[in-house]
Amino acid sequence: MTITKKGRVFSGARPTGRQHLGNYLGAIKNYVALQEEYQCVYSIVDIHALTTVETTENLRQNIYEMALDWLAAGIRPEESIMFVQSQVPEVTELHMFFSMVTPLGKLTDLPTFKEKARQQPHNINYGLVGYPVLMAADIALYKADAVPVGVDQAPHIEFTREVVRSFNFRYNTNVLVEPQMKATEFPKVVGIDGQQKMSKSLNNHIELASTPDETRARVMQMVTDPQRMRRSDPGNPDICNVFSLHKVFSSPEEVAMIDTECRRAGIGCVDCKQRFAKNLNLSLEPFREKRVALSDKPERVWEILDDGRQRASQIAQQTIRDVKDAIGLP
Ligand code: ADP
Asked: Which of 38, 72, 96, 246 has the least C-beta neighbours within 10 A?
């Protein structure tokens, strides 16, 4: 039986190596679920990474580790296209065509650009300004109907829609598709510090591929309700990061029990965290088993990425042909 899919989804993420709980809940879990209804194209966007990384020494390893995590989490490479951005160079061509219909002021006004420029004032390169143009090219190249992203990426999707509209208007065509944004359910997973967004660069993350012991040690460092000083103080689960993750990884009965008991100091933070570590490790068990099995044959991962490259190239080459025809290029 062939399943009729609703359309095509595209998403890309920079190769940051081993993925953490934030990546999982904010992106990967959604990537896996979307496969049921959409034809999915998932890209490891290594060219994007060049705008911010200081060294490319670990780039290959990071691509490999990330691909491994995606596969172990349930991306089905026979069905979905999983590939490395730089291996389908048509994206750079479309990026160049898009740059002709992009007002510079629009790029420098984007909040994400301003933030990056603040973070790396000595390295505001041309590529950094053009990041959203390359992202628009990524999405439009695969004629994606929908893009799953966190809220912080919303301005980029709106920007992509504008670029596609400008392109289609400028060349009096409709070859390119204006994508819709698909908001993720979990836009912000907070790190073990209990405050900032979980991120590798802040070292407040919990890696999916860690051992159960490493995971437990990390969980035990998590900051809970900051107003609860002593074991005898009642806690407030509504402001506790551990509780918000319990809601994802623990049974409804256990969540309800913690909710009640925490509020009347019936359960302490240590016990609460131990329970969370146990449930998290249990949930991650199938992922970890699959990851170990896959990592036995690293060449298989590269073969999957190469197969993805071939299938992505077919779509990309057709789009570039359509785009060139629309522009009037030979
Ligand atoms: P990128 O710059 O390519 O978005 P990241 O590693 O920052 O690379 O993120 C990859 C994906 O994981 C993105 O979709 C991002 O929104 C999601 N993500 C990363 N960290 C978190 C977090 N702490 N909470 C929710 N989602 C996150």
From this structure: 96
The total number of structural domains that make up the chain: 2
Given this model, what pLDDT does residue 169 score?
98
Closest-CA residue, ligand 1 atom 16, reads 150
**C-alpha to C-alpha distance for 78 and 80, rounded to whole angstroms:** 6
Backbone phi and psi for residue 97, each to the nearest 5 degrees, phi listed first: -65, -40
DSSP 79-123: TSEEEEGGGSTHHHHHHHHHHTT--HHHHHH-HHHHHHHHH-TT-
pLDDT at 324: 98
Dig out the tokens for 131 from the structure. Answer: 């990041």
Map residue 157 onto helix, strand or coil: helix
Per the structure, the complete domain to which residue 273 belongs is given by 212-292
Closest to 251 (Cα-Cα) out of 214, 273, 276: 276
DSSP 12-42: EE---SS-BHHHIIIIIHHHHHHTTTSEEEE
| Pocket-testing residue among 23, 48, 204, ligand 1, by greatest number of atoms within 8 A of Cβ | 23
274 and 321 part of one domain:
no
pLDDT along the chain (330 residues), means of 10: 78 96 96 96 96 88 98 98 98 98 94 90 90 97 94 89 98 97 89 96 97 98 91 93 97 98 95 98 98 96 98 98 98
* Shared domain check, 302 and 281: no
CA–centroid distance, residue 66 to ligand 1 (Å) = 12
Q: Which residues line ligand 1 (CB under 6 A)?
A: 13-14, 16, 22-23, 26-27, 150, 186-189, 197-199
How many H helices and E strands in the chain?
15, 5
Copy the structure tokens of residue 95: 């990026």
Cα-to-chain-centroid distance, residue 320: 26
Q: What is the reported pLDDT for 227?
A: 87
Same domain, 53 and 148: yes
